[in-house]
Amino acid sequence: MDVRRLIFKYRGYTPIPFFLVLLYQSNMTWLGVISGLVLALCGEWIRLSGVHMAGGRTRTRNVGAKKLSTEGPFAYVRNPLYLGNIMIYSGIALFAGGPWVFPLFIIALLYFFIQYGLIISLEEKVLLNIFGKQYEEYCSNVPRLFPGLTPWNKKQEVKKLPLKKVFRTERRTLQSFIAVIIIIISKEILINILHVIR
Questions:
Q1: What is the pTM of this model?
Q2: Is residue 60 part of a domain?
Q3: Alpha-carbon distance 14 to 4, whole Å?
């Protein structure tokens, strides 16, 4: 079995060990909270923009697409949702703080770049088979994971997903994001209460 397909299938569960370590060592600071929230919210905005342009075809267990998305964030970077995820995970690491904040921040970047690198290599192979030269041209003009400064201007007609459906499609990501933030804050409050009681 191709390990990339396994990683793709379970990509929603791979951050769990990272978050458990993050929670164990968390110790919030104002600088970490603010910088982490800004980074994570920027990542979520990129994800929402990508889902809006892709028409909601991003929540799938199957690799492939019916239509190639090349507008909005897809005009700057081929994988805006994965870029958004990396920003969210890194932002949450900064938000949580703690003695291991910088090593965990670097680990988050490396781990998720490797994970998404494997997934992207699988998706690119499949998309090349589906879209052929159209996808080759897109790949030669739009960076894989680090956004370009100028958008690719080859327009295509896109049926954008209405914002209400974007938020419905992104519900699980938003719920997970909010739950992790609440858990980190709750742990901080509980520790402070225990210190006062002692």
A1: 0.86
A2: yes
A3: 13
**pLDDT greater than 90 at residue 34:** yes
First-to-last CA distance in the chain? 54
Q: What is the pLDDT of residues 154-197, one digit of tens each?
A: 766 667 777 888 888 888 889 999 999 999 999 999 988 888 88
Q: CB of 144 within 8 A of CB of 34?
A: no
Residue 168: give the domain boundaries.
3-7+26-197
pLDDT digits (tens, 9 = 90+) for 80-100: 999 999 999 899 999 999 998
Tokens representing residue 155 in the block: 């327009």
Cα-based torsion angle of the residue sequence 73, 79, 82, 83 in order, rounded to the nearest 10 degrees: -60
Across the chain, how many H-helices and E-strands are there? 8, 0
Whether 35 maps to a domain, the answer reads yes
Using the CB atoms, write b or e for 112-137: b if 16+ within 10 Å: beebbebbbebbbeebeeebeeebee
Q: Is the CB of residue 169 less than 8 Å from the CB of residue 161?
A: yes
Length of the chain: 198
Residue 14 in domain: no
Angle between helix axes 171-197 and 30-54 (nearest 10 degrees) is: 170
